[in-house]
Amino acid sequence: MTDFDPWPSVRRFSAHLDEVNGTSEHELALRLMKLSEEVGEVTEAYIGMVGQNPRKGVTHTREDVAEELCDVVITAMIALCSFSPDPELALRSKIEKVDARYLDAS
Questions:
Q1: Which of 4, 5, 14, 59 could form a Cys-Cys staple with 48, CB 3.0–4.6 A?
Q2: Contact call for residues 71 and 7 (beta carbons, < 8 A)
Q3: pLDDT confidence bin for 2, thresholds 50/70/90
Q4: Rounded Cα–Cα distance for residues 70 and 67 (Å)
Q5: What are the tens digits of pLDDT across the range 43-65?
């Protein structure tokens, strides 16, 4: 596997949204609300994967759920760009804090 840095793409996505939609407080709130929408799509895909809705049956795969989860991650990263001057550092710091808790627990 090669190294992959998603941040250049995420910064482009965020800059595009800034250019097209602006950066007002309303726009920032909508970016946060978009996360809820994407999480709902994960839930919908999972329900379809397990066939929980008897009227629809099995409509999704694990790959569909994974794809929707990726949308959540991308959407969160874009939102993070709007709330942090250094989103890469913010994410790295948070991962290191969580990782330390796991290391301490083992």
A1: 59
A2: no
A3: confident
A4: 5
A5: 999 999 999 999 999 999 999 99
Q: Give first-to-last CA distance, the chain, whole Å.
A: 28
Which of 2-6, 62-66, 80-84, 93-97 shows the lowest mean pLDDT across its residues? 2-6
Cβ atoms within 10 Å of 43's Cβ, excluding its own? 12
Paired tokens of 10: 């995420």
Q: Which two tokens stand for residue 36?
A: 């809820």
Entry pTM: 0.92
Sign of the dihedral through C-alpha 88, 4, 7, 71: negative
Q: Which DSSP string do the residues of 16-73 spell out, in sequence order?
A: HHHHHH---HHHHHHHHHHHHHHHHHHHHHHHHHHT-STTT-----HHHHHHHHHHHH
Q: How many angstroms separate the CA atoms of 80 and 31, rounded? A: 9
